[in-house]
């Protein structure tokens, strides 16, 4: 008698029961119905047992694979409950901050980020409504050294209920320090630019103003921010526009390191400026110019008075 062992509708094997030839019963019915039922039951139980073992082996293999993956990646993987208590953190936390996983598990997330429980609860409320949340914290290592860490988190739901958060931690200390130094440098440069009397400007090739320092206010009686996006040549005296456009469009600043021309304020008052500029390139393409404008109106007026005075004196002498 043969009975198939079936798993997921596929025949995995067979169970076969045989009588020795010399022990064959003297009847056509070799096996009783009870024996057939027993063999079927044995085949079913054996199939279930094999299926269970295969699943256990597959699960074990999967767990070992992901365990190796989690323990060997440089990013830290963590999980908290819905109160922010850390219930899992990968061993790479030791390399990142010097803590052992067992030193951290069971503690609250806020113990390391320095935020209040109320703030943490608010963040947890926010994370329920978004696919992911990113934040940066300065966290002290086990030795007290500050490290900048980026948290990438996502909510965990079970049967529609929020049960916690999982995510990764990445060390961004080097990147953050560079950003902070850059901000410090930019702030220092901005303070320097905004404190000098001369006007610092940056314009595109068509004359659109990208930046102009606050010193422009003393010359044009306009707020610097109101000039952003306007065309610089619109403030140039009509009689000087063609001359200046020729220099600008034909890249003749090398031949005219300091050029002088007239501008008109919003009230129509004429002012003289002396300009210097250098080319601005992006990927070897000339995209604009940056430079300095110096108010020389007083000097020009003095020169004009002197010219007129000399002319009057010359006429007087000649007469």
Keywords:
single chain; 319 residues; 5-stranded antiparallel sheet
Structure notes:
The chain is an alpha+beta fold. The protein has helices spanning 33-72, 93-97, 101-104, 110-113, 117-127, 173-195, 216-220, 224-227, 238-249, 297-318; strands at 2-7, 10-16, 76-81, 86-89, 133-140, 146-158, 161-171, 199-204, 209-212, 259-264, 270-282, 285-295. The strands form three sheets. It has a five-stranded antiparallel beta sheet. A hairpin with a 5-residue loop joins strand 10 and strand 11 (270-282). The relative contact order is 0.06.
Assess the beta-strand content as a share of residues.
25-35%
N-to-C SSE string, H for helix and E for strand: EEHEEHHHHEEEHEEHHHEEEH
Strand order of the largest sheet: 4-3-7-6-5
In total, the number of strands is: 12
Cα Rg: 41 Å
Euclidean distance between termini CA atoms:
147 Å
Shape: elongated
- How helix-rich are the residues, as a percent range? 40-55%
Low-confidence stretches: none
> Assembly state here?
single chain
What profile does the largest beta sheet have?
A: 5 strands, antiparallel
Number of discrete helical segments: 10
Structural class of the helices, strands and pairings? alpha+beta
Overall residue-averaged pLDDT value: 81
């Amino acid at each position: 008698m043969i009975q198939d062992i079936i798993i997921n509708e596929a025949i995995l094997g067979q169970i076969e029961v045989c009588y020795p030839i010399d022990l064959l019963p003297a009847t056509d019915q070799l096996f009783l119905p009870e024996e057939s039922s027993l063999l079927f039951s044995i085949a079913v139980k054996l199939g279930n047992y094999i299926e269970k073992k295969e699943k256990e082996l597959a699960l074990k293999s999967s767990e070992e694979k992901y365990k190796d993956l989690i323990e060997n990646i440089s990013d830290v993987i963590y999980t908290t409950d819905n109160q922010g208590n850390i219930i899992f953190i990968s061993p790479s936390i030791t390399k990142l901050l010097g803590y052992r996983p067992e030193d951290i598990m069971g503690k609250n997330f806020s113990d390391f980020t320095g935020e209040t429980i109320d703030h943490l609860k608010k963040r947890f409320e926010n994370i329920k409504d978004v696919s992911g949340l990113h934040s940066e914290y300065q966290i002290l290592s086990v030795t007290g050294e500050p490290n900048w860490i980026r948290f990438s988190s996502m909510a965990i739901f079970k049967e529609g209920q929020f049960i916690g958060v999982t995510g990764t931690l990445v060390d961004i200390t080097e990147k953050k320090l560079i950003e902070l130094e850059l901000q410090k440098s930019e702030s220092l440069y901005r303070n320097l630019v905004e404190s000098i009397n001369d006007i610092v400007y940056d314009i595109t090739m068509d004359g659109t103003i990208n930046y102009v320092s606050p010193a422009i206010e003393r010359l044009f009686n306009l707020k610097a921010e109101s000039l952003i996006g306007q065309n610089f040549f619109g403030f140039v005296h009509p009689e000087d526009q063609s001359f200046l456009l020729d220099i600008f469009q034909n890249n003749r600043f090398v031949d005219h390191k300091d050029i002088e021309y007239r501008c008109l304020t919003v009230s129509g008052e004429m002012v003289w400026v002396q300009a210097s500029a250098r080319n601005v390139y992006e990927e070897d393409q000339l995209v604009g110019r940056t430079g300095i404008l110096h108010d020389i109106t007083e000097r020009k007026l003095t020169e004009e008075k002197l010219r007129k005075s000399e002319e009057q004196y010359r006429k007087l002498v000649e007469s």
